[in-house]
Specification:
461 residues, mainly alpha, 17 helices, 0% strand
Length: 461
């Protein structure tokens, strides 16, 4: 993008190297989930650096929120692409993920190698109730933004309730729930359009004085040539995206066969990436169904531990899939017993590749196309209905996690004596800290971990 052409007297263009330094820094400081990550980008890019204006930032964010995948990572990819073409998007989106991948590989190795050490087990005991509270917080956060009041949007409430029953009671696979919700939104917007008006998003409130200085990409800056829709470019990006999926998948199949663990991980997490409407918590039930119940790559308690590790590292929460891949690769010894770590690290990398590749394709190929349809109800209504279904699905996940921490593993006493009251009390306190007192995620997890250590070391739990 040529800033001087758009802003003859405006701010100078940002060099690719300066942008790279910022995206690298962001990859290491992007804590706090999507809301926190978006807030960091808003503060840095809109208020301080003035690389992009408030309206253009929110326009990009609204687009990313309509897509499956982690919206904060996609927003970084979008802004990087808008500023420095395809390479800018690849660098911004890639550096949002890579630090988290390397950190999680290290933490996952510590977990599988030393997880049975008493003090480590005590920390993990305290973290599990915090995870349950975090899922409850996700239900509240997404539900408050999507469902509105029951009297205003009863259809959305019905979609959420039916989705909860479908997953928690009837054990219907998550993709079918998403499809049913999308059809409800598609047909519903014709008969009751008011039910599907877009709810509030993650966008930051406008900061007084933030728009006084001209931005590099300002409100009236024309869309750069590379960001305008062209059928030839769309076909090229889609073809390259397909090639980047087919070549690694073909190599994995040629090496270990279609039924091999790595090929199955690649295929499964490709499907998961396409179902991540509403954030990482929305797809966790699907990941649990597949990774735990179908393939047995890890156990339910391990899944909770991985979610806790994902919450305490920078980057998108969906990076928990790297933990799933690492633990699965470790247990299956995909490179043999002599290279257990490298096999697990390879599995984590494979899972990350197939999970995030669709997000890059969505931005680089679909950005110009989807922007032209943004705000049209026939396009947004199915996505709003899917988000309502996500509320019910996450609530079913919260129920599972609470049930898991409420019952002592391996206990043989009476039904009442087998209840883990210490864990339930800790979960309630964590939920109170998150929902009532708005404490940070890392603070709550650290407090719960230390409390769990004390409980286990003193024999109270």
């Amino acid at each position: 993008m040529n800033a001087s052409a758009d802003h003859p007297c405006g701010p100078p263009a940002v060099s690719f190297f300066d942008a790279l330094k910022f995206w690298l820094k962001l990859g290491f400081i992007s804590f706090g989930g999507p809301a926190g990550q978006i807030a960091i980008m808003h503060r840095e890019l809109v208020e301080e650096k003035r690389w992009i204006s408030e309206q253009r930032f929110l326009h990009a964010l609204n687009y990313c929120m309509l897509l499956p995948g982690p919206e904060a990572q996609q927003l970084a990819t979008y802004i990087g692409w808008l500023m420095h073409r395809t390479w800018g998007g690849l660098v911004a989106g890639g550096l949002f993920v890579l630090p988290s991948l390397f950190i999680l590989i290290g933490l996952s190795w510590i977990y599988v190698a030393f997880g049975n050490v008493p003090w480590v087990a005590g920390l993990l005991y305290g973290i599990k109730p915090a995870v349950a509270a975090l899922v409850l917080q996700a239900v509240h956060r997404i539900g408050s933004k999507t469902l509105k009041k029951p009297a205003v949007a009863p259809v959305l409430w019905a979609v959420a309730a039916i989705s909860f029953i479908a997953v928690a009671v009837l054990k219907i696979p998550f993709p079918w729930v998403v499809l049913a919700a999308a059809l409800t939104g598609w047909f519903g917007q014709r008969w009751a359009p008011g039910q599907f008006a877009a709810a509030g998003g993650h966008g930051s409130a406008k900061t007084p004085g933030a728009a006084q200085r001209p931005a590099l990409i300002d409100d009236n800056t024309p869309t750069p040539a590379h960001a305008r829709f062209r059928r030839s470019r769309l076909a090229t990006v889609l073809a390259l995206g397909a090639l980047l999926w087919l070549v690694p998948m073909g190599l994995l199949i040629a090496w270990q066969g279609w039924s091999g663990a790595l090929a199955q991980m690649g295929w499964f997490f490709t499907k998961a990436a396409l179902l991540t409407f509403g954030g990482a918590y929305a797809v966790l039930p699907y990941v649990y169904q597949g990774a735990v119940e179908q393939f047995g790559w890890l156990t339910g308690p391990q899944m909770m531990d991985g979610l806790a590790l994902g919450e305490t590292t920078p980057g998108p929460l969906i990076m928990v899939v790297a933990f799933v891949g690492f633990v699965g690769g470790w247990g299956l010894q995909v490179l043999g017993p002599q290279a257990q770590f490298w096999g697990a690290a390879l599995a984590a990398t494979v899972v990350t590749w197939f999970t995030f590749l669709p997000s890059f394709v969505f931005i680089l190929a679909g950005g110009p196309l989807v922007e032209s349809t943004h705000g049209k109800l026939q396009f947004t209504a199915p996505l709003i209905a899917i988000t309502a279904a996500v509320v019910g699905v996450i609530a079913s996940l919260a129920l599972f996690f609470i049930a898991h921490i409420a019952y002592k593993t391996g206990a043989n006493g009476t039904f009442f004596s087998n209840f883990d009251f210490a864990a339930l009390i800790l979960a309630a306190l964590a939920a109170l800290a998150l929902l009532r007192y708005k404490l940070g995620v890392v603070t709550v997890i650290a407090g719960c971990a230390l409390t769990g250590l004390v409980v286990k070391m003193t024999g109270l739990g």
